[in-house]
Write a structure and sequence with these properties.
Elements: H1 5-20, H2 36-45, H3 47-63, E1 70-75, E2 80-85, H4 88-91, H5 106-109, H6 113-120, E3 124-127, E4 139-147, E5 153-162, H7 170-189, E6 194-199, E7 211-215, E8 221-224, H8 226-232, H9 236-240, H10 244-248, H11 252-261, E9 267-270, E10 276-283, E11 293-294, E12 314-316, E13 322-325, H12 328-338, H13 351-363, E14 370-373, H14 380-390, E15 398-402, H15 408-416, H16 430-433, E16 438-442, H17 449-461, E17 463-464, E18 470-471, E19 475-480, H18 484-489, H19 495-501, E20 504-507, H20 517-528, E21 535-536, H21 538-545, H22 552-567, E22 572-573, H23 580-592, H24 630-644, H25 649-656, H26 660-670
Parallel strand pairs: 11-13, 14-19, 14-20, 15-16, 16-19, 21-22
Antiparallel strand pairs: 1-2, 1-5, 3-4, 4-5, 6-7, 6-10, 7-8, 9-10, 12-13, 17-18
């Protein structure tokens, strides 16, 4: 193990702090988790951190699977929020616990990765007998703090395993994962700001090593990631004291002019100390805002039309506030793209979708629960929002709970809220947040059994105890890719809740069975593409119509967004603009097809021309699969794609249009 002098000194100082706190090396610490109600409050307080960290933790776990370690997330107090990994690490000893609710602050457990990183606010590893308490010396920990864009501490990410599994690279992986979480946070915080991505080396601009600087319309710096602070040699406090001009010697309008002139590649910026940085600008200021927009005929725009603005469209006026000239037709396009659809959204020329819209309109405002069945990525949440928008509750809240994406305590807090104490107010759950409106239960088949009983009681009695017996007036829409009927038969889902949710059951067809592919493609390009949506080249249309779209509408969105970005200002998307993995998938599917004409063309409902490629085999289910459930068909698709790609989950994720975390979760459930 390396014995870096700085590391040795950090451990020595930590031991001194522990001794000053009155801890003893023969102590064991308190491993009792927080009471359930208190833990729910902690989860509620750190919900956003969990949402950003959970998928990154799964990715980190993939990198350390062989070490049989745990990936742990803790808040600023050292309380564990979430952990994933090998449970056998915990089963071998009762001396420690890495479960949610247990506190690992240095003042409680002595020197350890999480607790010490929170004190020093620096990445740290604590190996074997470097732990202050002998009870923990069988562990090795690597931890890194997580900060928001203004330098405030959010929590800590940690990998803990048996000391025999120590690897010098683990701390580096944890540090990179923490930076990934911070970058996600920064992007969300500053989604309507100019973002400057930069590095001293061109090839590092868009990597985790790249700096990201968020800039306001007045040229002030709104936030930065840690790579940016390192490259600029600034502290978070120093960042707030600077602006674009003080850093780069350019006013904001001048910076935008430089960016336009360097539109074919990265621009070069020079710091006061002479260091040269290569950068690209991503401009996300709202299109329409009274303080910054000049519109035809003296009109003013509203925030409803906010969208991303390519730098080529920006025309700065008097500094420091840039102005944007927006044609009326483009403002209408932007507003339409942000509009919440009602059931007319389903009317795209596909007979199945037309029939679906008709059925749903008949039950609107009749207090009938709707259960949406469909494959992953087929648009179940969009459909739920359309049902809400069609009803008389449209002006009231629409609240969503993802029953598959959160651990049980967090789902409970999400649904039912938490009670407050003398010093803290309680947190409202989604049911009360949706009062008078609609509650959408996404992936309801994954709801834990204990919560199924509680939800049923609320829906039947229309009262949300224990929060003062508040009445629960919500329309309920639920969705799942599982076969709930089959789950009821094997007692994995409550029968009484199933019938309560299944007032009307509707099936959202997968994209390969729909005849509105091109209509959807045009909508997606208008909504997610550049201001002037490019057309689709005839060859691109042919490729899209011959494809089986295992990831459904979500995959179509991903493919078209990437293609539109590659097309840039070109009038049409050609095969050269399509993602490489999509082209490879189409070619691989074509190689598997038997010769001769074959049925109907995927996504069109029309016969395939003699010289057109037949639809892939996945679009023509084997007779043995005809009676399979949605979940089984989806699982078969995932297994087939993973096998075809020799187990490469990253490529499988791109091809299917679903996240790597989802694939791993389904593979674990299937095994």
């Amino acid at each position: 193990m390396p014995s870096d002098p700085a590391h040795v000194e950090a451990i020595r100082k930590s031991h001194e702090r522990c001794a000053a706190l009155g801890l003893t090396r023969i102590g064991h610490g308190d491993y009792t988790p927080l009471p359930r109600a208190d833990l729910a409050l902690v989860h509620e307080r750190n919900r956003r951190l969990f949402v950003h960290a959970a998928p990154v933790m799964e990715l980190l776990l993939e990198q350390i699977l062989v070490s049989k370690s745990m990936v742990v997330l803790a808040d600023t107090q050292g309380t564990v929020l979430h952990s994933v990994g090998h449970s056998d690490l915990l089963e071998r000893t009762a001396k420690v616990a890495l479960a949610p609710g247990v506190n690992w602050a240095e003042a409680s457990k002595g020197t350890n990765g999480m607790g010490t990183a929170l004190v020093t606010e620096e990445p740290v590893f604590v190996h074997a007998d470097e732990h202050f308490m002998y009870a923990n010396d069988f562990l090795t920990c690597s931890a890194a703090p997580i900060f928001d864009p203004r330098g405030n501490l959010l929590g800590v990410l940690d990998v803990t395993g048996d000391h025999r599994s120590f690897h010098a690279h683990t701390l580096g992986l944890v540090k990179m994962s923490a930076r990934m979480i911070e970058n996600h946070w920064l992007t969300e915080d500053c989604q309507h700001a100019l973002r400057l991505h930069f590095h001293s080396r061109v090839e590092f601009i868009d990597t985790l090593m790249g700096g990201i600087l968020a800039v306001g319309e007045d040229g002030k710096l709104l936030g930065a990631n840690r790579s940016a602070l390192d490259l600029l040699a600034l502290s978070p406090a120093g960042l707030r004291m600077n602006c674009v001009e003080s850093l780069f010697g350019l006013s904001l309008p001048q910076l935008l002019d430089v960016a336009r002139s360097a539109s074919t590649g990265p621009l070069t910026l020079t710091l006061a100390n002479g260091l040269q940085l290569h950068a690209r600008l991503q401009l996300n200021w709202p299109l329409a805002r009274p303080t910054m927009s000049l519109l035809p005929s003296g009109e003013t725009a509203t925030d409803a039309g906010a969208t991303a603005v390519p730098s080529a469209l920006v025309r700065p006026s008097a500094p420091p506030v840039p102005s944007v000239l927006v044609p009326r037709r483009e403002r209408t396009r932007a507003a339409d793209a942000e509009a919440v659809p009602d059931l007319s959204w389903l009317q795209t020329g596909d007979a199945q979708m037309e029939a679906l819209a008709t059925r749903l309109r008949r039950v609107a405002d009749r207090d009938i629960s709707v259960l949406i069945l469909g494959e992953t990525g087929s648009g179940k949440e969009v459909l739920a929002r359309a049902i809400h928008q069609e009803s008389s509750r449209a002006r009231l809240p629409f609240a969503t709970v993802n029953c598959a994406g959160l651990p049980e305590p967090m789902i409970e807090a999400e649904l039912f809220g938490s009670e407050g104490g003398a010093r803290r107010p309680g947190a409202l759950g989604r049911i009360l947040q949706a009062q008078g409106g609609t509650l959408f239960l996404d992936e309801v088949g994954d709801m834990p059994p204990a919560l199924q009983a509680r939800l049923l009681r609320v829906l039947q009695e229309h009262e949300l105890a224990p929060l003062g017996g508040a009445p629960a007036d919500v329309a309920v829409i639920s969705a799942t890719h599982h076969d709930l009927r089959e789950m009821v038969e094997r007692q994995a889902f409550r029968e009484d809740l199933y019938y309560r949710l299944n007032g009307l059951s509707v099936r959202l067809p997968p994209l390969r069975e729909r005849g509105d592919l091109l209509v959807l493609a045009q909508r997606i390009l208008r909504r997610h593409g550049p201001l002037r949506a490019p057309a689709l080249d005839a060859e691109v249309v042919r490729l899209m119509q011959s494809y089986h779209w295992p990831g459904n509408v979500r995959q179509l969105v991903n493919v078209l967004r990437a293609a539109a970005a590659m097309a840039g200002d070109e009038a049409a998307i050609t095969p050269a603009h399509l993602p490489e993995d999509f082209i490879e998938d189409v070619q691989r599917a074509a190689a598997r097809r038997p010769p001769g004409p074959a049925g109907a063309q995927a996504g069109t409902g029309k016969p395939v021309a003699q010289n057109d490629p037949a639809p892939p085999l996945a679009a023509q289910p084997d007779p043995a699969e005809a009676g399979a459930t949605l979940e089984e068909l989806e699982m078969q698709t995932i297994l087939r794609v993973v096998q075809e790609l020799d187990g490469n989950i990253s490529l499988a994720s791109k091809r299917l249009g679903i996240s790597r975390n989802t694939i791993y979760r389904k593979l674990r459930r299937h095994s």
